[in-house]
Predict the structure.
Amino acid sequence: MNEKEIVLSGIRATGNLHLGNYYGALRNFVKMQDDYDCNYFIADLHALTTNPDPVELHENVKNILAEYLAAGVDPEKATIFVQSDVPEISEMYLLLNMHVGIGELLRTTSFKDKARKQLGISTDSDEDIEKQIVGNESNKRVNAGLLTYPTLMAVDILIQKARKVPVGKDQEQHLELTRRFARRFNSFYNVDLFPEPENFNFGQNAVKVPGLDGSGKMGKSEGNCIYLVDEEKVLRKKVMRAVTDEGPKTPGQPVSEPVNNLLTLMELTTAPEIVQSYRDAYADCSIRYGDMKKQLAEDILKVTTPIRERYQAIRADEAYIAKVVSLGAERARERASRTLQEVKKAMGIIKFY
Ligand code: TYM
């Protein structure tokens, strides 16, 4: 029998999961678990790059684990683990960093965005951003962990030799870097250690879930999220308050960004013919945003309510969560320690006593 292809993905331990995390990643975690060798983890080390409160970090790890399980990730089918439970990852992160250029890290979009936010820089010019990061003398600091975020993510993937990585559109640049690091390592040491991983969404383009505030993507730090565990009332209120426009004035005019964002959300949750009916109503200027939002809230609740209900019970059972991740850590470490030995051997780090 053919061995199953290896899948790996993770989510940072920063706050509860939102619809972006669900449609970009978690939904596929569940859909893939029967047919692939699936490995899903909580990225607590990645969360450290933004210096979270230690108590909150610990809580978030357990919350997200419970959300994985509540959404249907099955520990009998998939390996579920916490990143920091696999110390081999940290060791290989040090080793791989020796083959990663500071320049390519500085140019990574996610780094520039986060650094810009942390330092309150408004410029778009790469040169200015670099100058301000290096020259910054205030007590605001962009830490080296944030810069090397892509190395750590590449190690998560490469140490398991994963080929498929179900993630949202915002992670594609990180995957591109991972492939580049894999090729570079293989060719520098003349080995065939790492396969090149790719994003996976069942043949469809990677997903970008928009926020409710009219522009951009749904994101934990944007304050524009619908969380999987939002209470029904809260969720309805958020949807009803979502930004729209003043309504179309001319038949056939292009759909404005805020309304298009809501239609994109609808495409993920609502029957295609209903979405089309709202597109048609926009085109002939008869659209009623109140009705559209009610429909959207209803359809989102159909997805989130069962997850929220299961979540409460699972989150309360700490012994169960602990069992799941201790078993997961054992399994994840098996392959990780094998790969780490191969990496060290290739690099000449060889024990001789
Ligand atoms: P994180 O925690 O930012 O997001 C977790 C997953 O959710 C997806 N996502 C979205 N997808 C579509 N639309 C959105 N608005 C949206 N917001 C978030 C992300 O694409 C991601 O799939 N670097 C990763 C965590 C990570 C990882 C890895 C992932 C660390 N190591 C190894 C895969 C493999 C991250 O920050 O995800």
